[in-house]
C-alpha cells in the first residue's frame, strides 16, 4: 500500500506525542514501510500530513459474508475512511470453549477485505460491547457463572474467573487477526477497550494490559468518553471518544425527544452528552469537562447515524438528523465524525433465544429489541439499501472533509454560539432541530479563505465569503453546492459573483462551479473526477459500479389464512417498560401465506418490501423466524434468498390504542383513528431489486 493510497484513504494513527506536558502512550505507530500514524491534541497525522477522517460502524457478524466487499466499497463511496466494528463475544463462543469464526463470523476475512479496499479498521473488542446484543455480548455460560459464583466471575470486574475468560477472548480474537495489524502491514490501527463503563480505572488498565499481552500492539487505544469514570485515570493511555444522538430508543419516557436530545443540535463547548445510555446511566449526567480531557483531540465514535425502534419507543428517523449532528460537532472542534451505525445489519438466528437485547435476561435488560433486524435507519440500512436523505447529506459533507479536512484539522474554534461556529476560514451553521425546527438548515461556508492553499498556484485568490457550501475539487474545478433559500454567491477578492447553477465559471485564475442540491446528490468524486448517477457509484478495483434499487412489476401471492385473535394484554417488563410479544402470542396473529417465490430463486439481490400497519410483524420460513419488525410507519424489508423454496408465512399482531408505547405524531394519528382502537392492515407486498452493473 503506497503513501498515495494511504492519504486517499485518510487512515488514522497514533504515536507517542507530547501534549500538555503529558505523553500519549500507545503502541507501534510505524508500518513496515516506515509510514507513521501520530496523534496530538488536534487529531491524526499520517506521514507528517494532517487528516480529518470519517469513521463508520458496521458489524461484520450482522452482514452476510458474501456482501462484505460490496458494502465496504459503498461505505467508502459514502465518505467513510475508517471502519469500526464490535467483536461480539456471544457470536463467537456461544458454548464455552467452542469458538466459531466461520461464515458471517469470519473476522479475519472481513479485516482482509477492509485492507484490500484500503480501509483501516478499529476493533471494539469488549469484553462488554452492548450493541443491543443479547446480554451485551456476554455468552450465557459466562453469565450463568457470574450468577452462581459472583466472587470469581463478577462481570466487568477484576474477578479472577472473569479476567481469565476475558484473556481467552482477547487471545482468540488476536489469533484471528495476527498479521493484519498496522505494524505488520495490515489495516488494524486501533483497539477500543470495553464500552460505556465507569471503571474503576484499574479495570481499564488490566484489560488494556491483557490486550497488549495478547498481541494487540496498535497505533492507538480508545474508550468511550462516557460515563465519567469512578476515580482518576492515567492521562494518555486511551483516547476518549464521544458521541451524541438525535433521539434514543432507550429513553424511558413516552414522548417526543425528552430530556436533552435537542441539545445535540447546537454548538457547545463540552464533548459529553447527557442523552447517551440514559436507561443505564440515568438522566442529568454531568457534562462538565476537566482540563485533562480537553488535552485529548476531540474525536467521536457514536454520532447517531440513525436509531433503532425499541418495542416501547418507535422512533422514525427522517435522515435529516445526520448532517446537523456532524456539523455541530465539527463546529465545536471535533476532528473525527464517527457514526453509530453507518450500516445496519441482521442478528444471527439462535434457536434457544433471541440474539438481541431483551428485558427477560439477568444482565443488559433495559429494552426489548427486534429479534432479527438491526437496520438502525442508518445511511446504509440492514440490506445495504440507501436511506437516501441520510446517505446523500452525509456523503456530500464527507467529500468536503476529504478535500478540506487537512486545513480544517489545523484550526481552533474561534467563535462559538448555539447556532454558529467558526474555525479559521470555515463557518458552521445549524438551526435544524429534530421535531422542534424541521424547517431549519445546516451548512458550512467559507470566509477569508486563500484558494492557493489548494490549487498550488503562486497567485493568491481570496474567497472573502460564500453563501454556498464547499463540496470538492475535481477536474481542476472548485465545486460548491447551493444552500436552500440562499442566493448562490461568492465574493472573490472583493468582487461579488452570483453563480448560475451547474455552470462552470472563471474568477481570479480559478475555475469554479456551484451545483444545485439536486445535481450534487448525483455527483461522486472518483479518481479526481466527478461522475454523475441517480444510483450509488462506488469503486470495485478499476471498475466504477452503479447500484440502483427499483420495484419490479411482480405480483406476490399472499392469502390470509388466519384472522387476528384480537389485542393481547401488554405487560411491563422487569425494567417497567412495555414488554414485547412472546412466540406464543403469534399463534393468534393475523397470518398470510406467501407463495410464487420459487421462480425468483436464482436472483440473490431481490427483497420483499412489506407495507403494513400494526404492532409487530414477523416472517417465518419453514417455521423459522427470519425477519421481524416493530412498526414505526416504515415498510419491512426481507431478503428473498431466505425465503425461496420454503413455506413462507407473514404474521402481524394488531396494535392497541392504549398500549404503553411511544409513537411519533403521524403514526399516533393513524392509531388514534383506527376503528375499535386497534390498528392492523397489510397494505401491500412488492418485490424490490438491487441492480448492480459497471458503468463505462
Protein traits:
696 residues, alpha+beta, TIM Barrel, Jelly Rolls, eight-stranded parallel beta barrel, 42 strands
Give the overall shape: globular
Q: Portion of residues in helices?
A: 10-25%
Q: How many helices does DSSP assign?
A: 14
**Total domain count:** 3
Query: Which CATH class of the largest domain applies here?
Result: Alpha Beta
Q: For the CA atoms, what is the radius of gyration?
A: 25 Å
Strand content: 25-35%
Calculate the mean pLDDT score and round it: 94
Provide structural commentary.
The structure is a single chain. This protein has 14 helices and 42 strands. It is globular and about 75 Å long. Helix content is 18%, strand content 28%. The protein folds into 3 domains: 49-406, Alpha-Beta Barrel (TIM Barrel); 451-541, no CATH class; 550-694, Jelly Rolls (Sandwich). The protein is α+β, with helices and mostly antiparallel strands and 696 residues long. The longest helix has 22 residues, at 388-409.
Amino acid at each position: 500500500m503506497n503513501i498515495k493510497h494511504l492519504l486517499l484513504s485518510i487512515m488514522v494513527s497514533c504515536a507517542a506525542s507530547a501534549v500538555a506536558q503529558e505523553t500519549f502512550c500507545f503502541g507501534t505507530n510505524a508500518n513496515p514501510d516506515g509510514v507513521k500514524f501520530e496523534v496530538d491534541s488536534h487529531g491524526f497525522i499520517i506521514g507528517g500530513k494532517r487528516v480529518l477522517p470519517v469513521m463508520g460502524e458496521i458489524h461484520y457478524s450482522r452482514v452476510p459474508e458474501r456482501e462484505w466487499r460490496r458494502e465496504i466499497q459503498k461505505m467508502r463511496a459514502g465518505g467513510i475512511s475508517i471502519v469500526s466494528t464490535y467483536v461480539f463475544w456471544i457470536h463467537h463462543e456461544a458454548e464455552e470453549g467452542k469458538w466459531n469464526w466461520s461464515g458471517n463470523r469470519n473476522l479475519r476475512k472481513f479485516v482482509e477485505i477492509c485492507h484490500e479496499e484500503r480501509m483501516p479498521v478499529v476493533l471494539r473488542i469488549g469484553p462488554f460491547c452492548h450493541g443491543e446484543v443479547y446480554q451485551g455480548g456476554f455468552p450465557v455460560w459466562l453469565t450463568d457463572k457470574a450468577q452462581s459464583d459472583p466472587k470469581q466471575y463478577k462481570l466487568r470486574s477484576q474477578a479472577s474467573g472473569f479476567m481469565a475468560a476475558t484473556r481467552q477472548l482477547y487471545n482468540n480474537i488476536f489469533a484471528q487477526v495476527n498479521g493484519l495489524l498496522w505494524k505488520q502491514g495490515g489495516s488494524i490501527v486501533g483497539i477500543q477497550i470495553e464500552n460505556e463503563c465507569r471503571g474503576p480505572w484499574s479495570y481499564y488498565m488490566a484489560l488494556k494490559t491483557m490486550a497488549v499481552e495478547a498481541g494487540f500492539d496498535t497505533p492507538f487505544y480508545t474508550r468511550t468518553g462516557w460515563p465519567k469514570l469512578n476515580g482518576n485515570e492515567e492521562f494518555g493511555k486511551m483516547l476518549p471518544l464521544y458521541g451524541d444522538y438525535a433521539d434514543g430508543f432507550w429513553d424511558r419516557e413516552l414522548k417526543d425527544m425528552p430530556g436533552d436530545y435537542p441539545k445535540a443540535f447546537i454548538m457547545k463547548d463540552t464533548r459529553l452528552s447527557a442523552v447517551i445510555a440514559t436507561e443505564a446511566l440515568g438522566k442529568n449526567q454531568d457534562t462538565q469537562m476537566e482540563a485533562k480531557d480537553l488535552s485529548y483531540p476531540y474525536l467521536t465514535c457514536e454520532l447517531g447515524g440513525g436509531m433503532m425502534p425499541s418495542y416501547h419507543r418507535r422512533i422514525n428517523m427522517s435522515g435529516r438528523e445526520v448532517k446537523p449532528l456532524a456539523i455541530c460537532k465539527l463546529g465545536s472542534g471535533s476532528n473525527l465524525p464517527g457514526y453509530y451505525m453507518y450500516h445496519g445489519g441482521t442478528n444471527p438466528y439462535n434457536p434457544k433465544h433471541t440474539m438481541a437485547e431483551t428485558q427477560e435476561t439477568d444482565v443488559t435488560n433495559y429494552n426489548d429489541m427486534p429479534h432479527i433486524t438491526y437496520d438502525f435507519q442508518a445511511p446504509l440500512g440492514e440490506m445495504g439499501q440507501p436511506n437516501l436523505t441520510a446517505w446523500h447529506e452525509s456523503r456530500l459533507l464527507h467529500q468536503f472533509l476529504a478535500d478540506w479536512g487537512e486545513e480544517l484539522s489545523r484550526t481552533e474554534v474561534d467563535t462559538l454560539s448555539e447556532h454558529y461556529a467558526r474555525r479559521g476560514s470555515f463557518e458552521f451553521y445549524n438551526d435544524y432541530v429534530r421535531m422542534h425546527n424541521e424547517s431549519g438548515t445546516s451548512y458550512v461556508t467559507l470566509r477569508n479563505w486563500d484558494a492557493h492553499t489548494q490549487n498550488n498556484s503562486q497567485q493568491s485568490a481570496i474567497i472573502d465569503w460564500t453563501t454556498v457550501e464547499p463540496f470538492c475539487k475535481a477536474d481542476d474545478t472548485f465545486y460548491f453546492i447551493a444552500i436552500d433559500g440562499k442566493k448562490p454567491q461568492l465574493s472573490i477578492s472583493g468582487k461579488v459573483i452570483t453563480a448560475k447553477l451547474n455552470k462552470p465559471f472563471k474568477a481570479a485564475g480559478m475555475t469554479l462551479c456551484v451545483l444545485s442540491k439536486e445535481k450534487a446528490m448525483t455527483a461522486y468524486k472518483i479518481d479526481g473526477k466527478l461522475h454523475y448517477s441517480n444510483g450509488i457509484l462506488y469503486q470495485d478495483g478499476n471498475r466504477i459500479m452503479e447500484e440502483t434499487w427499483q420495484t419490479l412489476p411482480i405480483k406476490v401471492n399472499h392469502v390470509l389464512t388466519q384472522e387476528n385473535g384480537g389485542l393481547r394484554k401488554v405487560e411491563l417488563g422487569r425494567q417497567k417498560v412495555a414488554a414485547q410479544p412472546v412466540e406464543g402470542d403469534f399463534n393468534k396473529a393475523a397470518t398470510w401465506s406467501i407463495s410464487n417465490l420459487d421462480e425468483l430463486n436464482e436472483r440473490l439481490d431481490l427483497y420483499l418490501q412489506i407495507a403494513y400497519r400494526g404492532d409487530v410483524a414477523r416472517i417465518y420460513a419453514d417455521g423459522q423466524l427470519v425477519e421481524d419488525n416493530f412498526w414505526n410507519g416504515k415498510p419491512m424489508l426481507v431478503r428473498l434468498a431466505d425465503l425461496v423454496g420454503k413455506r413462507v408465512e407473514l404474521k402481524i399482531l394488531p396494535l392497541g390504542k392504549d398500549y404503553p408505547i411511544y409513537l411519533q405524531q403521524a403514526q399516533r394519528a393513524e392509531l388514534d383513528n383506527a376503528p375499535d382502537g386497534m390498528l392492523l392492515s397489510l397494505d401491500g407486498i412488492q418485490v424490490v431489486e438491487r441492480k448492480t452493473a459497471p458503468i463505462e
